[in-house]
Specification:
Blueprint lengths: L1 H6 L2 H20 L6 H26 L7 H15 L6 H25 L4 H20 L11 H8 L1 E2 L2 E2 H19 L1 H11 L1 H6 L4 H27 L10 H11 L11 H32 L13
Antiparallel strand pairs: 1-2
Helix pairs in contact: 2-13, 3-8, 3-11, 3-12, 3-13, 4-5, 4-6, 4-11, 5-6, 5-11, 7-11, 8-9, 9-11, 12-13
Length: 310
C-alpha cells in the first residue's frame, strides 16, 4: 500500500474521481451529453485543451505560470490560415507556424529563466505584444476568407468511433511526453530543476539549458494545439485562443500539480481536460433539458392557473 501511495498520490486521483462523478451526473440528468455528436465535440476540444495544458504543465514544473497561451495559439493558427491558401504547401506552412510558437516561448524562457523576471508579468506582456502584432498584421480575421486549409480541416475534424483526431493526437503526445519525463535523463531533470534549482546546479545539471529546452517544448505543444484548433474551428479569428488562457491553468490545478514546481502526472492532466470539457457539455445539456421539461409540462410557479400543472 505504501508503494501504491508513492506511485499514485491522492492528488493525482482527484481528477479521475471527479470525472466518474460527472459521468454519473450526465447519465441521470444530461444523457444527451453522452451522444455521438456530443462525444465527438468533447473529445476534440479536450484533445486541444490537453495539448495546450501539457505546455502549461511543463512551465508549472519549472515553478512558473504562462499567461501567453492564448496569444501563442492564435499566432500559430494565424500563420496557418494566412499562408495556407489553396495551392500552398502545408508541409512548409505548418512547420513555420510551429516555429513561430517555439520562438515566442523561447523568448518567454529567456526573460524568465535567464533574466529572472516574474513569469506572470513576462507572459502577460508577451500576450499583449503578440496579440497586438497579430491585429496589426492580419486584423481580426487571419486572411481574406478566414478559412483554415481544407486538408487541415479534414484532418482535425475527422473522427473514429466518435473520437476526434485531436484527442488521438493528445493521447500520442501525452504518451511520448510521459515516457520522456519518466524514463529519460533529460526529462527527469525538468522535475529536478523545478523542485530545487540550487540542488540541481550543485549536482552538475545545466539548469539554464534545461529551462530553455523546456520552454522550447512548451512552444511546440502550443503550436500543435493552435494548428489543430484552427482546423477544427474552420474559420478562426484573433480570439481563437482566449478560452485557453485560464483553462490550461485550471486543468493543471485539477490534475494535482504543485505550482511551486516539481514532478507531475500526464495521465491526471488528460483526465482533468476531459473533465472540464465534459462538465461544460453536461451542464449545457442539463440546462436545455430542464428548459424543455419546464416548457412541455406547462408548469406555472406560485399557483398559476390553467394548463397541465404539476
Amino acid at each position: 500500500m505504501t508503494d501504491l501511495k508513492y506511485r499514485f498520490p491522492a492528488r493525482y486521483l482527484a481528477s479521475s474521481a471527479a470525472l466518474v462523478l460527472l459521468l454519473v451526473f450526465a447519465v441521470v440528468f444530461a444523457p444527451a451529453s453522452l451522444g455521438g455528436n456530443s462525444v465527438r465535440v468533447v473529445s476534440a476540444l479536450a484533445g486541444i485543451l490537453a495539448l495546450a495544458a501539457m505546455g502549461q504543465m511543463l512551465v508549472v514544473m519549472l515553478g512558473a505560470i504562462d499567461l501567453s497561451v492564448s496569444a501563442v495559439l492564435a499566432a500559430s493558427a494565424g500563420v496557418v490560415v494566412h499562408y495556407g491558401v489553396p495551392g500552398a504547401n502545408l508541409w512548409l506552412v505548418i512547420p513555420a507556424a510551429l516555429a513561430v510558437s517555439v520562438a515566442v516561448s523561447v523568448v518567454n524562457g529567456f526573460f524568465i529563466c535567464v533574466l529572472r523576471l516574474n513569469s506572470i508579468i513576462v507572459t502577460l506582456a508577451t500576450y499583449g505584444i503578440v496579440t497586438g502584432g497579430m491585429l496589426l498584421w492580419t486584423g481580426v480575421s487571419f486572411s481574406l476568407t478566414g478559412e483554415a486549409p481544407e486538408q487541415l480541416q479534414h484532418v482535425s475534424q475527422w473522427s473514429f468511433l466518435n473520437i476526434n483526431t485531436c484527442f488521438m493526437a493528445a493521447i500520442v503526445v501525452g504518451l511520448i511526453l510521459a515516457a520522456m519525463l519518466s524514463y529519460t535523463r533529460a526529462g527527469r531533470r525538468v522535475a529536478q530543476v523545478g523542485s530545487n534549482p540550487r540542488a540541481a546546479t550543485a549536482l552538475g545539471v545545466r539548469v539554464t539549458l534545461v529551462q530553455m529546452s523546456t520552454f522550447a517544448a512548451v512552444g511546440l505543444l502550443y503550436g500543435i494545439a493552435g494548428v489543430l484548433l484552427a482546423g477544427f474551428i474552420g474559420t478562426p479569428d484573433i480570439s481563437i485562443g482566449a478560452p485557453y488562457q485560464l483553462a490550461t491553468v485550471t486543468a493543471v490545478a485539477i490534475a494535482g500539480l504543485v505550482f511551486s514546481g516539481g514532478p507531475t502526472s500526464v495521465a491526471s492532466l488528460l483526465v482533468s481536460c476531459v473533465f472540464l470539457q465534459m462538465l461544460d457539455q453536461a451542464t449545457g445539456c442539463s440546462r436545455v433539458f430542464h428548459r424543455r421539461a419546464h416548457r412541455d409540462s406547462g408548469f406555472r410557479p406560485c399557483g398559476g392557473s390553467g394548463g397541465n400543472n404539476h
